[in-house]
TrEMBL record:
<keyword id="KW-0813">Transport</keyword>
<protein>
    <submittedName>
        <fullName>Putative metal-nicotianamine transporter YSL7</fullName>
    </submittedName>
</protein>
<dbReference type="InterPro" id="IPR045035">
    <property type="entry name" value="YSL-like"/>
</dbReference>
<keyword id="KW-0812">Transmembrane</keyword>
<feature type="transmembrane region" description="Helical">
    <location>
        <begin position="64"/>
        <end position="84"/>
    </location>
</feature>
<feature type="transmembrane region" description="Helical">
    <location>
        <begin position="384"/>
        <end position="408"/>
    </location>
</feature>
<dbReference type="GO" id="GO:0035673">
    <property type="term" value="F:oligopeptide transmembrane transporter activity"/>
</dbReference>
<feature type="transmembrane region" description="Helical">
    <location>
        <begin position="463"/>
        <end position="481"/>
    </location>
</feature>
<dbReference type="GO" id="GO:0016020">
    <property type="term" value="C:membrane"/>
</dbReference>
<feature type="transmembrane region" description="Helical">
    <location>
        <begin position="309"/>
        <end position="334"/>
    </location>
</feature>
<keyword id="KW-0472">Membrane</keyword>
<keyword id="KW-1133">Transmembrane helix</keyword>
<comment type="similarity">
    <text>Belongs to the YSL (TC 2.A.67.2) family.</text>
</comment>
<feature type="transmembrane region" description="Helical">
    <location>
        <begin position="128"/>
        <end position="151"/>
    </location>
</feature>
<feature type="transmembrane region" description="Helical">
    <location>
        <begin position="414"/>
        <end position="432"/>
    </location>
</feature>
<feature type="transmembrane region" description="Helical">
    <location>
        <begin position="90"/>
        <end position="108"/>
    </location>
</feature>
<dbReference type="InterPro" id="IPR004813">
    <property type="entry name" value="OPT"/>
</dbReference>
């Protein structure tokens, strides 16, 4: 091999050979010569290290706010129409980041030609736009105008039950906006004190937030800017990969590049836990329970009735998630108290403690890479203090306790107080689970609130309305918690200030509280919203009212043994977490705790099915085999490839939504039938 020379000596030859700069290469053959190149990889933050990070005030610009308002209106309109038709809505996080970049970049390029550009467009400003639009879109997702609020109307009540005046409320634009303004900001203050723990200490992945950050970071490099310029049960998404029987139990590969990418980002054990939960529920438990139809529950019930098999799916999942979340909340509280006691008892050794702490911190800093140190520095610099967040939550909760009973007399102040005492635990559970798997289960916690408060208030006292209103309170807090953490993860990876992110969240929430009811009101007055035979059937309205009716009938209306199973799964989640922490503390040689599944991840497929867990495990396998071939390259480029898979499918959601709004369907539909069903169809067609 030739003598080792400096990398610049071969810069031209590397370029001709197609070798990019900024990565470690060894023993490459360039023009017939073996050359060893010793170059440290150029990480994301090293690319931006010479660029000044603007202060949090400069990250919030007028052009960013104007762009956010325009995009928020567009996305609110799309989401509202989709929620009133199919109820199936794609994620717009990535689209918000891309369109925000495209809009502002076009404007900046235009005024730059005239020499009027005063402040360059940064990735932090891009993140502020994305955060604001997602916050506004989140209100459209969870404002209840197509679900729990619509379920209060007489249109839905006439379909689901007898028309009892105390359980029906006429929809009005005034009280809908007032209700949303009252409940939508509380969750923002609730989770702020936990951002450091979730993102830095627990290092939760929040895959959508991570993918969006990779996209935004790539836009603001020269290459990235060039790159950015450039029917139901039908098709391969419903391909019965493992046969029709497995497909009927939601066990199939649906060719979703999003969840393959999420699987590449999530830790291996998260994906294994999801697959284990899928096998346990859809492969074993549900088929066995379905054999008890007619014994444990009525065999004539529809598949989505909580009186039947769906009751087991929903409540066993919620029980295990609550067990997991409550354990972590209790663990954090106990650990905090122990640390306080230890510090108090070791005051005399304070200097030693400080020196030891400093040494540990120094060692930890040495082990961290450049990107992590830089991100942590900027993320912790502008943290919102707890003395602002906690009183903010208390004040807003107190306001809600006074206002909500005025809007819904069926809910008393003490009902709302209990809801706000429950909310922190449920919000933590949802944010933690979302950080692991990218699934927000806010609607599940809302359904649980419907059951609890409907049963508590009772049918004759307006329990249906009380349950539906409490659903809105819980859902707004819980969904905001996970959305906030996703956005903070994006901000962490793009060096956006937590303060500018929080301001953007508040501004976006305010926009959403105005835009989403106004857009809904346009549809509500112009069309027969809620009519099952019309163009806007709003399928979730009757579903949520049905759950409220189930709640007023009491826990006894649940299918047989459902409550007992829920208790056992709740205890199992506690025990699994306890065993994991015991192994972490006392068994350090083999680190067996790494192979103990997560109860939260086991529970998620109980309700949703196993299809996405298969996608995610395929993502893990891709990363595993890639790492076996080239570990360094897999570590460096794996997140970028995963982000591309997630972003590609997410961006397709925008034109797909536009096609849906236009009422356009694919000209060909491919379905898979059993041989017997196919023969019956052939016989019918032959007869015709």
């Amino acid at each position: 091999m030739e003598r080792r020379r400096h990398e610049h000596d071969f810069e031209e030859e590397w370029r001709e050979a197609g070798i990019s700069r900024g990565y470690s290469y060894t023993d490459y053959n360039v023009n017939g010569r073996n050359i060893e190149r010793i170059v440290e990889p150029e990480t994301v933050e090293q690319v931006f290290k010479n660029l000044e990070v603007p202060s949090w005030r400069k990250q919030i610009t007028i052009r960013a706010m104007v762009t956010s308002i325009v995009l928020s209106f567009v996305f609110n309109f799309v989401i509202c129409k989709l929620s009133l038709t199919t109820g199936i809505i794609p994620s717009f996080n990535v689209a918000a980041g891309l369109l925000g970049f495209a809009f502002v970049k076009a404007w900046v390029s235009l005024i730059e030609k005239f020499g009027l550009l005063k402040q360059p467009f940064t990735r932090q400003e891009n993140t502020v736009i994305q955060t604001c639009v997602v916050a506004a879109s989140g209100i459209a997702f969870n404002n209840g105008t197509s679900s729990y609020l619509l379920a209060m109307s007489s249109i839905v009540a006439d379909q689901a039950d007898r028309d009892i005046p105390t359980n029906v409320k006429s929809l009005s634009l005034g009280w809908i906006i007032g209700f949303l303004l009252t409940v939508s900001f509380v969750g923002l203050f609730l989770m702020v004190p936990l951002t450091e723990m979730m993102i830095i200490k627990y290092k939760l992945t929040y895959p959508t937030g991570t993918a969006t950050a990779y996209l935004i970071n790539s836009f603001h490099t020269p290459r990235g800017a060039k790159l950015a310029g450039s029917g139901s049960d039908c098709g391969f998404s419903s391909f019965p990969t493992f046969g029709l029987q497995a497909y009927s139990h939601r066990f199939y590969f649906d060719f979703s590049s999003t969840y393959v990418g999420v699987g590449m980002i999530c830790p291996y054990m998260v994906n294994v836990s999801l697959l284990l939960g899928s096998i346990l529920s859809w492969g074993i438990m549900w088929p066995l329970i379905e054999k008890k139809a007619g014994i444990w529950y009525s065999a004539d019930l529809p598949a989505n009735s909580l009186h039947g098999i769906q009751g087991y799916r929903v409540f066993l999942a919620i029980a295990m998630m609550l067990g997991d979340g409550l354990y972590h909340v209790a663990y954090i509280m106990v650990k905090t108290m122990v640390n306080i006691i230890q510090q108090h008892s070791m005051k005399r050794k304070e200097a030693t403690v400080i020196n030891t702490h400093f040494s540990n911190q120094t060692l930890e800093s040495m082990l961290e890479n450049f990107d992590e140190r830089r991100r942590k520095e900027f993320f912790l610099k502008d943290q919102i203090p707890s003395w602002v967040a906690i009183p903010g939550y208390i004040c807003l909760a107190g306001l809600s306790i006074g206002v909500i009973p005025v809007i819904f007399p069926q809910l008393k102040p003490y009902h709302v107080l209990v809801a706000y005492l429950m909310a922190p635990i449920l919000a933590f559970c949802n944010a933690y689970g979302c950080g692991l798997t990218d699934w927000s289960l806010a609607s599940n916690y809302g359904k649980m609130a419907i059951m609890v408060f409907s049963s508590w208030v009772g049918l004759e006292n307006g329990g249906v309305l009380a349950g539906l209103a409490s659903c809105g309170v819980i859902m707004s807090i819980v969904s905001t918690a996970s959305d906030l953490m996703q956005d903070f993860k994006t901000g962490y990876l793009t060096l956006a200030s937590p303060r500018s992110m929080f301001f953007s969240q508040v501004f976006g929430t305010a926009i959403g509280c105005l835009f989403s009811p106004l857009i809904f009101w346009f549809f509500y007055k112009a069309y027969s919203v809620g009519d099952p035979t019309g163009s806007y059937p709003a399928p979730y309205g009757p579903m949520y009212r049905g759950m409220a009716l189930l709640g007023v009938e009491g826990v006894a209306s649940l299918p047989k043994n459902c409550l007992e199973f829920a208790i056992w799964f709740f205890v199992a989640a506690l025990l699994i977490n306890l065993i994991t922490h015991l192994f972490q503390r006392y068994e350090t040689r083999y680190r067996i705790y790494r192979f103990i599944p997560s109860p939260m991840c086991i529970a998620i497929p109980f309700y949703l099915g196993g299809y996405f867990s298969i996608d995610m495990c395929i993502g893990s396998l891709i990363l595993l085999f890639w790492g076996m071939k080239n570990k360094q390259m897999a570590n460096d480029f794996g997140p970028a490839v995963a982000s591309g898979l997630i972003c590609g499918e997410s961006l397709w959601g925008v034109p797909a939504a536009m096609l849906s709004l236009a009422g356009l369907n694919a000209p060909i539909c491919m379905k898979f039938l059993s041989a017997s069903t196919n023969n019956k169809i052939d016989a019918i067609l032959s007869g015709l």
